[in-house]
Amino acid sequence: MTEHTSPETSVASFRSSLLKHLQFTAGKDPKHSTVFDWRIALSHTLRDHAVDPWFASTRRTWDEDRKRVYYLSMEFLIGRLTEDLAINLGLRDIAAEALESLGVDFETVASEEPDAALGNGGLGRLAACYLESMATVGCPAYGYGLRYEHGLFEQSFKDGRQQENPENWLAHGNPWDYARPETVYGVGFGGDVYEENGVLRWQPGTHVQAQAFDSPVVGYGGKWANTLRLWAATPNADLFDLGRFNSGDFAAAAEPEALARSLSRVLYPNDTTDGGKQLRLSQEYFLTSASVQDIVRRHLVNHDSLENLDAHVAIQMNDTHPAIAGPELIRILVDEHGFDFDRATDLSTLVLGYTNHTLLPEALERWTVGLMRNVLPRHLQIIERLDQKFVELQAGSHHPARLISGDQVNMGDLAFTTSHRVNGVSALHTELVRTELFPAHDALHPDRIVNITNGITPRRWLKLANPALADLITKTIGEGWETDLDRLRELEAHADDPAFLNAFAQTKLAAKERFSQWLKEEHDLDLPTNALVDSQVKRMHEYKRQLLNILWTIAHYQRIKRDPNAGWVPRVKIFAGKAAPSYHTAKDIIKLINDVAEVVNNDPETQHLLRIVFPPNYNVTMAEKLIPASDLSEQISTAGMEASGTGNMKFALNGALTIGTLDGANVEIREHVGADNFFLFGLTTEEVAQRRSQRGHSRAAIEKSQALQDILQAVAEGTFSPDEPYRFGQLVDNMWNSDWFLVASDFDDYDRAQQEVEEAYRDTARWNRMAVLNIARMGYFSSDRSVREYMTEVWGVESAL
Ligand code: GL2
C-alpha cells in the first residue's frame, strides 16, 4: 500500500517540482510569474503526488476484482481543490514552505483558484463530501457527473436586486483533470423503435458523443484514491459543415456543433425545483447513458457475462435526476445482451439504489409522455412495461400508484421500483418518505426504505476551514479525530476548564478576523468582530424562511430604537444565498433584506448594536470562511420541509449554536448535542399540517402578535423602501392572507428563542461551554459514517483498506 506521502516528500523536492512545472507547464520563469502561473505550478505538483495512490488503488481494485460503487449525480459542488488535496496528501505545510522559499504565499496562490461550482446547494455539496469520504474510508468508487462549461451563475446585486452573471470556471483550463479522448460513448436521442427478428431495436435519430475527463480524488492520509469522471459533450468532427463555412455561412456551419455541445454547456440553476425542460431531460440521459455504458464495458473487461453484475457493481442515483438509469440498464441487458425482460429488471434492481433528497412536489421530476416519446422512445416502452408490472403487484388496490399517471411519467416512482434500496437523508425525512411520498411502494417492499442521515467531511469543514480550532483540538486530544470524528467526545472533559474555554473563544475570534478581512478585500464590506455573528446562509427559498429572519431583525431594530440603552448584545446578521433566476418571491426577499440593511446599517443610533451583512455570490469558498466565524446558526425552515440540511452540521461542528425548528437533521443534531445546547422553537411537522388546514391561520397569528403587526406595517408603509412604498406589498399581503410557510404562526416562538440566545450570549462562559459541547458531540455527522452506512446497507461493498 502506498504510504502517506509526507515523510518522503521534502520541501526541497517539492520546490524543485514547483519550479519544473512553472517552467514546463506554465511556461514561465520565476521572475515573470503571476499568481496564476504559480497556481498552475502548484496544482500540477500536487496532482503528480495524487497519481501514485490513484494508480495503486485502481490496480488493486482490478487485481482483486472488487465490487465498485458508481455514484451518479447531476451535481458535484466541489469548490476549490488546491488546499483540500494538499491536506489529504499530507503536503499542506511542505507546499507552503516550498512556496515561501520562493517568495510566494500559499494562501494567495490557493485563492486564485476558481470554485468548481457544478452544483446548486446541499445536494451537490453532499456528493462532493461523499466522494472525499469514499476515498478516505477506502471504498472503491467512481463519481460520474457532467463537466459543465458554466457552473452555477455568479450573483451580484444591483440596487439590492439579484443579477445573474455567467460563471466561467474553465476559462483558463482545469489543472485537475485528464482528458480521455479514447473514452467516448455515443448517446442516442429520438428516432424510432422497430422490430427485427422478433427483437425490438432502437434507431436513435441523433447521437451525441460523451467524452470522459478524469480527476483523482484522494482520501485523507493518501491511502486510497478514486476517480471522478465527468462527461463533456463533444460533437463529431463531421458535425461541422465545412461546405457551409466555405460558402460564407459561418453561423449555420457551427450550429449542429453548438447544439451537441449544449448538453454539457450549463448547470440548471434550480435548487429543489424542476423546469421540465427537454434540454434538462437530455442532460440527465446523457450523463446516465454514458455512465451505464462505461460501467457495463468495464465489467465485461474481466467477466464474460453480465449475469453477475450485481456482485460487482452498485449504482447509486443521487436523487431522481439519473432515474433513467433503470430503463437504460434494462434496455442494454435486453436489447443488446439478449436478457429476458423480467430477469433484466430483477438484476437492474439489485444493482441500483436511489437517494431521495426532497419531498417538495415541485422537485419530484415528472416528464410528459410526449416528451419522453420524442427523446427516449425505447425507454418509454420499458417504463410502460414496468408500470404494468407495478400495477399487477398492487392487485386489489382501487387506486394503485403508477409510474405513469395521466400523461406524466413519475421519475420518483420509477426510481423506487428499479432500486433495491431507497433512502431518505435524515430520520424525520425518511419517515415522511415512507408515509407521505411512497406509502404504496413501502407496503409492497417494507424492507426497501432505509435511513442514512447525511454527513459532512471534517477535513474540509474543520481542518481546512478552521485551522485555529483544528489546532486547538489536536493540541487537546491529539491527532486522529480527522478520520475518527467520534473522538471529539474527548473534548467534553475540557468543557468546564476556563483555560480551554478561553482558548476556544480565541479560535472564534481568529476566525472572525479572518472572515472580516476576506469580506473587506473581496466585497468591501465591514464586519465588526466584537459582535454575536448570527448567520443564515443557504439557497433563498420560502420554505427556508429567510423572511422570518429578516422580519425578526426589523423587530429587533425597532426595539433598539425604542430603548437604546437596554444592554443589547451587539449583533451582526449575515445573510447569503442565491435565488433561482425565475423565482420571483425569493428575489423579492433578497431585495427586502438589502433594503432593510440599507436603513439599519446607516442609522447612527443603532449601528454599533445591529448590522446586516449580505455578501453576494455565496459559494463553497465563502462558506469555508463564514461558517467558522459564526456564533449562531439559523436553521429555521418550516417543519417537514428541509429534508436534512448539511449547513446545520457545518456550523455546529465549528462551535456555532443552532436556533432551529424540529426539521430535517436538526432533530438529530439536537439529540446529539443535547436539548440544553440548542435553541428550539416552532411548530412540529404534525402541527404544521394541522395549522395549514385552519382557515385564516395567518391573520389570526398576526392579530395575536403586536410585534409582527408593527413590522408588517413598517414594511407595508415603505419604511425600508421610501422610493417605492408599495414595493413589498405582495410579500405583506401574502403574510396576511396565505402564509403557506407559516412565518406568522412561528414568529412569536422564534422571538422567544432569540431572547434566550441574547441572554445566553451575555454569559460568555456559559455560551462557550455550550459551543464546545456542540463540537464535542458532532462526531456522528461525519460523512465517513454516512458512507460506511451506504456501504453496508445499500452497496454491499467492503473497504479496501
Ligand atoms: C436537498 C435538500 O433540500 C437538503 O435538505 C439536503 O440536505 C440535501 C442533501 O441531501 O438535498 N435536496 C435538494 O434537491 N437540494 C438539497 O439541498 N438541492
Automatic annotation (TrEMBL):
Cofactor: pyridoxal 5'-phosphate
EC number(s) from the headed UniProt entry: 2.4.1.1
Keyword Transferase included in the entry's annotation: yes
Catalyzed reactions per annotation: [(1->4)-alpha-D-glucosyl](n) + phosphate = [(1->4)-alpha-D-glucosyl](n-1) + alpha-D-glucose 1-phosphate
Pfam families with a match to the protein in the record: Phosphorylase (PF00343)
Keywords: Carbohydrate metabolism, Glycosyltransferase, Pyridoxal phosphate, Transferase
Keyword Transferase annotated: yes
Matching InterPro entries: Glycg_phsphrylas (IPR011833), Glyco_trans_35 (IPR000811), Pyridoxal_P_attach_site (IPR035090)
Gene3D superfamilies, sorted: Glycogen Phosphorylase B
Source species, domain of life: Bacteria
Family note: Belongs to the glycogen phosphorylase family.
Biological role: Allosteric enzyme that catalyzes the rate-limiting step in glycogen catabolism, the phosphorolytic cleavage of glycogen to produce glucose-1-phosphate, and plays a central role in maintaining cellular and organismal glucose homeostasis.
UniProt protein name: Alpha-1,4 glucan phosphorylase
UniProt source species: Rothia endophytica
